[in-house]
Amino acid sequence: MSDVVIGHSGPITTITLNRPEKMNAITRAMYKSMADAINDAASDPVKSVVVIESNGDHFTAGNDISDFLNNPPLEDGSEVWQFIRAAHDFPKVLIAATQGNAVGIGSTMIMHCDFAYASPTTRFRMPFVNLGLVPEFGSSYLFPKNLGQRRAAELLLMGREFSAHEAASWGIINEVAEDAKARAHEVALLVAQQPPNALVQAKQLMKSPDHERLNVIMKAEGELFQQALTSEEAQNAFMNFLMKKSK
């Protein structure tokens, strides 16, 4: 089976992270598969909803550190950037369903989803600074804007873990659901019944005030992230992470 499984059911596309033995840590190839699926749905007049979910006990452990060390995404237009652009520019409805660990981009992508549901087991965390990196996917803007500067500092500067119930109370997700995937697909079916043009236009109006601002911020984040990836600080943090993991 592929590390990313793409499913289709009428107007709904489902992207399933399928690397449970690695807690669905995301490689460059997986980013490419997800970006292609989102872009395909964007251009398909039949598709109106994309659901991102995962198999196993965890949504994702974030970026696969070994993959990034061996093949860092330093070039413009890397697979990581393709996914970020695809999700940010997706004109239709994007839904996420999480469980277990939702680390790094597993947390930041939620802010780009129109609906998000988390099982009670979900633990969100953004350990960018802990790894000698900087926040990505517009999180340096979206979290302070939506949660306030001080709470965002806890999450982004300290890498504090937060629960599904905290995420719901802060408005990061819609609700905590015992079966987050089932709830996400229930909502996807309801959304898919809406008039498609009105759906796209309404989303565009809702997102337009921040869309271009986020483009600028994500570009700046990406440039700093690329620089940080090759820094001695990040390399040491990565190696410490891998050593702890191997014990």
From TrEMBL:
This is Unannotated protein. Signal peptide: none annotated. It holds the Pfam family ECH_1. GO terms for cellular component: peroxisome. InterPro entries: ClpP/crotonase-like_dom_sf, ECH/Chromodomain_protein, Enoyl-CoA_hydra/iso, Enoyl-CoA_hydra_C. GO terms for molecular function: delta(3)-delta(2)-enoyl-CoA isomerase activity. It is found in: Peroxisome. Keywords: Isomerase, Peroxisome.
